[in-house]
Amino acid sequence: MANDNLEDCQRKLQSCICLEKQKAETIQELQRELQKLQKDSLTAEEELVPSRKRIEELTLEFSEVTRRLDISEKEKRQLQKTLAEQDVKLSEQLDHINHIQHQVRKASKWAAQALALFKANCTALGNFPEVQWLGLPSLTAEGLGLIPGWGTETLQAVPCDQKLNRK
Hints:
mainly alpha; 3-stranded antiparallel β-sheet; 3 strands; 74% helix
């Protein structure tokens, strides 16, 4: 019996020794793996440093571009406001030009009527050499000269000398 106990203890001891060897091997293997992982982690960390720096640079660039974009948007809004104001002024100027063109057409029509009346009066007066219109420089029956009474509705001829009563 003591022999059996001794053999049993030896087997248990060998089993424990074997387990201890396996544990030691496992520990060594895990330590090697841990060292490898630590080395890989250190390498990865070193590789991340340039990436982090690049991220910081890009973040600064993005901030600058965003700031410039904000400034550009403000300038764009100001230019649009100025453009709208200029459009209003241009529209007013065009309206004014159209009004002036209308007045010029009306005055041209009036001038044509005045010229026709002048010619008719000259013919009726027997081609007298000079007729003064409303105190303006004299006009000859042959030439156009200045158009007197500009802007008035009624044309009036005033004789230059009192000898116009010839027949």
